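fwd from M.: "can u put these together and see what the complex looks like"

so here's what she sent:
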Amino acid sequence: MSIAGDLIRGHTDAVILARLLRGDSYGYEINRVISTLSSGRFELKEATLYTAFKRLEEQGLITSYWGDSGAGARRRYYAITPAGVEACFRLRAEWKETKEIMDKLLEEET
Amino acid sequence: MSIAGDLIRGHTDAVILARLLRGDSYGYEINRVISTLSSGRFELKEATLYTAFKRLEEQGLITSYWGDSGAGARRRYYAITPAGVEACFRLRAEWKETKEIMDKLLEEET
DNA sequence: CATAGTACCTCGCCTGTCAAGGTATCTCTA
DNA sequence: TAGAGATACCTTGACAGGCGAGGTACTATG
């Protein structure tokens, strides 16, 4: 079973920011890591990913720079900004709350 | 703090079906119960709610009938169908999985 | 008679996801 | 040396769900 788009929606930014919290990275790699960590069940499509990067950069939550990789295609690296760190913590807290509420609304009893 | 639209997205159907699992009900009441259970933090807007009812009925997951309330405005009651019960269980399982994956992707370490 | 509460419904905008398509570079193999 | 496959990036347009705004209709209360 893999996670459908509408379940992903609203969590994409949080997941990307959480990744960048561990250090700069680039699109292709972020996608691979997310896919690996979730055993392939949470898969960001490329279009979604790059749309998200653009959005996050416009909001000042991340910045980007071209890395020179001696070999292979060029990479655009992303770094999280202080505002991004804050946003990440906020989104994490929101996620925690969403979880609690949803558990209550979906629970078997009541 | 209340739950933003994009976090709600994808969960609306599950929440409504979970409510109807406990017995027939009508829009206004379902909304109130959801709001109460979540302490006002998960709030379905009316437009969202009625759109969802329509969608769920078209998919055969719920049926509706006019209830005659002697007093006050007329109410349209909704009942969950066998297919709806199945869908509800499936969505509940999906939610459980989403939770696990998200926790992994957002966790502090790693 | 006006106001507030109950209860329903629709239209049109906005936003995020994604299928499809494209570009460029490097490595490996036939 | 040609071709395939992996790496790596990006854009466009369609689509779907949430929701603001607006509307209808009935009852109770002051």
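replying to her w this: Residues 5-6, 8-10, 12, 44-48, 51-52, 55, 71-74 of chain B lie near DNA strand D (CB under 10 Å from a C1').
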